[in-house]
Design goal:
Layout (H helix, E strand, L loop, with lengths): L1 H8 L10 H25 L3 H24 L15 H11 L13 H4 L8
């Protein structure tokens, strides 16, 4: 959940890099919250909550996608690949699954190197 909240706090931050984990956790929690909001809308018989939630997460969703592309060394404009039917979405999915570009690139330092690893104590 911390990754989802981090993306929501970086509402329209299109600069920097986002790790794979940050992107996929945002997608997971966005999906789960969307299911709950859709269920509540179905119970109430409206589409208002889904519409408001969709508008609320649209910009952070695009921003985390752009930062994810920056992390693998690609421009955020690569998001436009989604406009190519079928092939574009598959290509973006492959790009989003790639590992981070090692070291710094033109969009900043590697986020994997900045975050200390948490070790569990037994």
């Amino acid at each position: 959940m911390k990754w989802f909240l981090k993306c929501m706090r970086q509402y329209a931050d299109f600069k920097g890099r986002a790790r794979r984990k940050e992107y996929w956790m945002f997608c997971l929690f966005n999906f789960l919250i969307g299911l709950v909001v859709g269920f509540v809308d179905a119970v109430l018989g409206t589409d208002v909550l889904s519409g408001v939630y969709g508008l609320l997460v649209f910009v952070p969703g695009v921003a985390v996608c752009v930062r994810r592309l920056h992390d693998i060394g690609k421009s955020g404009w690569m998001m436009l690949l989604v406009l190519i039917p079928i092939v574009g979405a598959i290509w973006l999915l492959v790009l989003f699954c790639k590992d981070s570009e090692p070291g710094a690139n033109q969009w900043g330092d590697n986020p994997k190197m900045r975050e200390p690893r948490v070790r569990w104590r037994e």
